[in-house]
Amino acid sequence: MVQTRAAQRTLRPFATVRRQRRVIDFAALDATTVSDGDVLEATGSCQVAAGVNTDHEASRSGMTIAVS
Length: 68
Prior knowledge:
Elements: E1 39-40, E2 43-50, E3 53-60, E4 64-65
Antiparallel strand pairs: 1-4, 2-3
């Protein structure tokens, strides 16, 4: 199962390293689509553009196992 959410705010470049935490809420998983033992992990990516310069970043959560 894949859920996709988009951030509704434009990222702007900083003059220094970005340390701002980005949080995007996901809806609770439907219990009928998740089974005991399923491994769950969230991944995210973003793009920041300033003129002709573009930077990409990716991050992932720790893994967790679904149990009922």
